[in-house]
Design a protein that fits this description.
Penicillin binding protein transpeptidase fold; about 35% helix; about 10% strand; carboxypeptidase; penicillin binding; serine-type D-Ala-D-Ala carboxypeptidase activity; cell shape; Beta-lactam/transpept-like
């Protein structure tokens, strides 16, 4: 505490021109309503299992009724034994400190009451600029007088019990423990209501100097001496009998230390793969205007706002996803195999799994497979926190023929029917795209094709022709409406207004995309063309338990965790796209013919219910994809080397994403009723 060395109590009523009554009245009103920073908790979907926390100051606000009487008594005894007699400023304490400090020619004794200390802490915690923090904490006579005046005013607005509650929730006890809840949990691993007199005296003694009286050091001499001092003060105030105090002072300080988790790296080991979902939550949060005007403000809210965040992940689906990409067994490969599962109609992410361990410790990782990275750059396996599944700033991976969905959907949405046919040659020279001449993967793909057979066999030349008919710009803009973003300079340039109409290779999936984007885009097709933004939460609550809301640009108040959906393509067009997308999986479309064979004909048998989807591979099979969906779920899986996109996975591994999606959908939907896709209308069949 900073002593009032030269100001009697009377100074508190005459502050001079520098501190106006109006300004102090405004600040006092803030103190009656402002609450200290609080830890935000992230829960599994059951709303009870804590996965991790976010905080700068570990703190959870606790009502006075939930704090043991011994703790309330101990803090009064330690810091302000006349707390219940004075009105915010203690004249006797000020006079005593003035005399003591005058005799010592320095600061030997303080005069701050609990109320004055709370004013200081509250001003610090509510400060919005560095200047305000400095004004709240600088050791000056002006600050001391300001505290006195505000303490006097505050006690006219708040009861002693309210002030004591706020104080106990604001004080710092060391070890990043702000407030009594955190201190009780960190030092004794128990709630504040269960603190004994000895434990309470130990904690109360810390407030004066948390480092000097730290009981967690090897030598507890100073901590014990300070605790015993508090016990003696409690006896003098009648809180303890002399015999109780004597017995208490003979007890050693018995700690049961615990260190609360913080941030995504602290997700428990048995939930390790949820670390990637936690990381996605952070990136999603930082983009939400509901939490501030910029990333810095939004992350500050996450770490100080006391939110209760319930993830949208489904434990059953997550377990299936982990099992089918080998999150525990296959971490030692440069090729990342990951999967994201999204819920059609809500956009809620139900699973995120990749064959990596979520960890900041890269010490056991080998060198990067990228020859241009240099010898000191670590690989991304087995440990990484990179957002390999999406939701961050990584561009993703070339998605190959999964992109054929976008020109087909654009054509259907423009009124072209599924039966639109073209005699697709093995190689097709495009006059629209300045003589570009792509070819098919196999000569067996040549011949007359429709959307059903062209999609089922993945006929490149058919889809280049189809994209010409509808316009590459229409396909690209539709992909953007379905959530795709261009992150590389090449993709941004090709998608620009000046070049987008000539981006013929777009339909072949030369652009990078993430599994999160692709799962969510295909989920919109499963939802009859209704696109919902990807979202990692099912609920967010404020510290008072109410749902967190925000106002949209149009002034409508809505819950932050509610799905945000819009119709992107008409329902009939989406149903037609689904009918064609049943062909690659070995399923039977409702209205047309797949042409005799398909690229992933094992999927229907594995899933065991109606399923649609699309395979995708790039040149030399540098990456391989499969995106599949049922009416209930959409899943996207890839395999690629995130460090070196030129490190080809090879044809032999192209089946891995197909199996991952098919088996995950099978396991996730086991025991659920079988739902059918809605067939397209006659108009869309043609």
């Amino acid at each position: 505490m900073v002593a009032a060395v030269a100001y009697p109590v009377a100074a508190a009523t005459g502050l001079g021109a520098k501190v106006t009554a109006h300004a102090l009245e405004h600040k006092t009103k803030i103190l009656t309503t402002a609450l200290p920073a609080e830890t935000s908790y992230v829960y599994a979907p059951d709303g009870k299992t804590v996965l991790t926390m976010f905080y700068e100051e570990y703190r959870q606000y606790t009502k006075l009724a939930d704090i043991s009487p011994s703790m309330q008594q101990a803090i009064v005894a330690a810091e302000d034994n006349r707390f219940y007699q004075h009105r915010g400023v203690d004249p006797k304490g000020v006079a005593r400190a003035f005399v003591a400090n005058a005799r010592s020619s320095g600061v030997s004794q303080g005069a701050s009451t609990l109320t004055m200390q709370y004013v200081r802490m509250a001003l610090r915690d509510s400060a919005k600029t560095p200047k305000e923090v400095q004004e709240a904490t600088q050791q000056t006579s002006l600050r001391k007088v300001r505290e006195m005046r505000m303490a006097l005013d505050l006690e006219k607005e708040m009861s002693k019990e309210q002030i004591l509650e706020r104080y106990l929730n604001s004080a710092y006890f060391g070890h990043r423990a702000y407030g009594i809840y955190a201190a009780s949990e960190i030092f004794f691993s128990k709630p504040p209501k269960d603190l004994t007199p000895v434990e309470a005296a130990t904690l109360a003694g810390l407030v004066k100097s948390p480092s000097e009286y730290d009981p967690a050091t090897s030598d507890q001499k100073d901590a014990t001496g300070r605790r015993n001092y508090v016990l003696d003060r409690m006896t003098q105030l009648g809180y303890l009998s002399p015999d109780e105090a004597t017995r208490a002072k003979t007890e050693p300080i018995r700690l049961k230390l615990s260190y609360p988790p913080n941030d995504c790296a602290s997700v428990p080991e048995k939930w390790n793969s949820w670390g990637f979902a936690c990381d996605y939550l952070k990136n999603w949060w930082s983009a939400q205007p509901a939490f501030g005007e910029n990333r810095l403000e939004r992350m500050d809210k996450l770490r100080r706002g006391g939110y209760r965040i319930v993830l949208s992940m489904d434990p059953k689906i997550q377990e299936a996803a982990e099992e089918n990409v080998g999150t525990k067994e296959n971490t030692g490969s440069p090729f990342a195999n990951g999967i994201v599962v999204s819920e059609p109609g809500t956009g809620r992410v139900k699973a995120m799994a990749v064959n990596r361990t979520y960890s900041l410790d890269l010490s056991e990782n080998g060198p990067s497979s990228n020859p241009e990275a240099g010898p000191n750059v670590k690989a991304n396996y087995p440990n990484t926190v990179a957002p390999l599944l999406g939701g961050g700033d990584l561009p993703g991976y070339q998605a190959g023929s999964t992109f054929k969905m976008f020109p087909m959907l654009a054509a259907l949405n423009a009124g072209m029917p599924l039966s639109t046919s073209f005699n697709a040659p093995h190689r097709y020279r495009s006059e629209v795209y300045d003589g570009w001449a792509p070819s098919n993967a196999s000569g067996a793909m040549s011949g007359n094709q429709t959307m059903w057979s062209g999609f089922g066999k993945s006929v490149n030349t058919y889809f280049v022709w189809l994209e010409e008919q509808v316009g590459a710009d229409k396909a690209v803009r539709l992909a953007e409406q379905l959530g795709l973003r261009w992150r590389t300079d090449v993709d941004k340039e090709q998608a620009s207004p000046a070049k987008v109409k000539k981006w013929g290779a777009f339909t072949l999936g030369v652009s990078d995309a993430t599994p999160l984007e692709m799962a969510n885009a295909y989920a919109a097709i499963a939802a009859d063309g209704r696109y919902c933004e990807a979202i990692p939460v099912q609920a967010i609550y404020n510290r008072d338990g109410t749902p967190t809301t925000w106002k949209t640009a149009s002034g409508i108040e809505r819950e932050v965790a509610k799905p945000r959906c819009r119709q992107v393509v008409n329902a009939d067009a989406a149903r037609a796209a689904t009918d064609a997308a049943r062909c690659p999986t070995g399923d039977t479309p409702a209205r047309g013919s797949c042409g005799g064979w398909s690229t992933a004909d094992s999927v229907r048998g594995t899933v065991g219910r109606p399923v649609a989807g699309k395979t995708g591979t790039t040149d030399s099979t540098r990456s391989a994809w499969f995106v599949g969906y049922t009416p209930e779920l959409a899943a996207a899986s890839f395999i690629s080397d995130p460090d070196n996109p030129f490190n080809a996975v090879g044809d032999g591994q192209s089946q891995i994403p197909i199996k991952a999606v098919a088996q995950t959908l099978r396991d996730a939907l086991k025991g659920q009723p079988t739902r059918q896709f809605t067939p397209p209308s006659d108009r869309m069949v043609g």
